[in-house]
Amino acid sequence: MKHPRKSSSSSNSVDLLALAEWVEQFSTKTVVLLGDFVADEFQFGEISRVSREAPVLILRHHETEVVPGGGANAANNFADLGARVLPVGAVGTDPAGEALIAGFRAKKVDVSGIVRVKGWTTPRKARFVAGWAHTVGQQVLRVDYEPQERLPPSAQEKLQRVLRAKIRRADALAVSDYGFGAASPDLLLIAKVKSKSGLLTTLDARYDLGAYGKSGIASATPNEAELEALHHTTIGSNIEELTRCGRATLSAMKLRALLVTRGRDGMALFERTGRVTHIPIHGGNQAVDVTGAGDTVLAVYTLALASGASPLEAAHMANIAGGIVVMKRGTATVSRHELLETIRQEASGGAP
Fold it and tell me: Is 295 one of the catalytic residues?
């Protein structure tokens, strides 16, 4: 008789078949994504020669691709996982902003929660990917275009109204704060208080995670560097320091759980019960591209919690999804089908 396989960690394991059942429920969920939307631009080309003007390589341009990044990538992950996602954020009335709107529409995502701000710059990260003939391209330069001014008060007020309206129809609220002003602790707190919402809320904040301490966050998914910045320390291989920082953050923010992503060292889950679980990295440790992996983790973890999974089960699902997405080039997503197939394959004893 074949018994269901379990995904193991240093101290806990989960039933993989149970994880698959939770993933099956993703398509029944509606999630509001409050986030800073970024246009990830990739300029692909071939290195032709060294410039005579300066000791730099000349890139012969082949094509340009613009894909949703930042909070927009998180929203795309929710959509590809089968959920109904309601993105709430801001873009400028510029080509980058229009490209993001068009990308959402192509996926049939509701764009009524996206505020267009005249004169504001949509955050854009232009990556130049170059290679010689018959070689795999490598990123050689990144140029960031960022808004020079904060979102105007009128845009912030509109975001607040839109957010209050959207969360009334949602099973969960995910916050993706990349520091550009659309997602903020004040906006979140005001919207939740005015709507009297006790909605499940998760957070991925690039900067100042602790500022959300009074915003009613149930769980957060910082990476190790963000946790280090919050506590002005270095963790590295020091598990005691990781544990100290994790538990301090969990307590200070009054979280139900804290999931810390640690790159090739996997993940660490801190729970209100006091339990700490170290989850090894899923798959190989030679990632192809980690761009946007945190967005995938936030989406899967949020949907799992919204479906009724425990924080430990949700963390294992997010870990598996993270292992899938880092093997893809560029800003990528994981589909519900990919996640289900991987989990079921492992449950049956197949190779991951």
Answer: yes
pLDDT for residue 10 = 41
Q: Is 231 buried (19+), middle (13-18) or exposed (0-12) by CB count in 10 A?
A: middle
- Encoding tokens for residue 3? 């018994």
155-169 confidence digits (pLDDT tens): 999 999 999 999 998
Token pair of 294, please?
């945190």
Other CB atoms within 10 Å distance of the CB of residue 115: 20
Question: Alpha-carbon distance 337 to 335, whole Å?
Answer: 5
Torsion of CA 270, 272, 274, 279, to 10 degrees: -20
Task: Give per-residue burial for 185-224: e unless 16+ CB within 10 Å, then b.
Answer: bebbebbbeeeebebbbbbbbbeebeebeebbbbbbbbbb
Q: How many Cβ atoms are within 10 Å of 340's Cβ, its own excluded?
A: 17
CA separation for the pair 181, 16 (Å, rounded): 39
Q: Which long-range contacts (CB under 8 A, 24 or more apart) does 339-346 make?
A: 339/23, 339/81, 339/300, 340/20, 340/23, 340/24, 343/16, 343/19, 343/20, 343/23, 343/317, 344/16, 344/20, 346/5, 346/7, 346/16, 346/320
CA nearest neighbour of 268 among 300, 311, 302: 311
Residue ranges in the chain assigned as alpha helix (H): 16-24, 71-80, 95-106, 153-167, 185-194, 224-231, 239-252, 293-307, 311-325, 336-347
Q: pLDDT band at residue 257, thresholds of 50, 70 and 90?
A: very high
Distance separating alpha carbons of residues 67 and 58, to the nearest angstrom: 25
CA dist., res. 8 & res. 104, Å (int):
37
pLDDT in tens, 35-71: 999 999 999 999 888 999 999 889 999 999 999 999 9
For residue 151, give the 3-state DSSP assignment: coil
Q: How many other C-beta atoms are found inside a 10 Å radius of the C-beta of residue 341? A: 14
Polymer length in residues for the chain = 352
Contact 178, 196 (CB under 8 A): no
Of 94, 171, 204, 295, the active-site residue reads 295
Give residue-wise pLDDT tens across range 280-294. 988 766 666 667 789
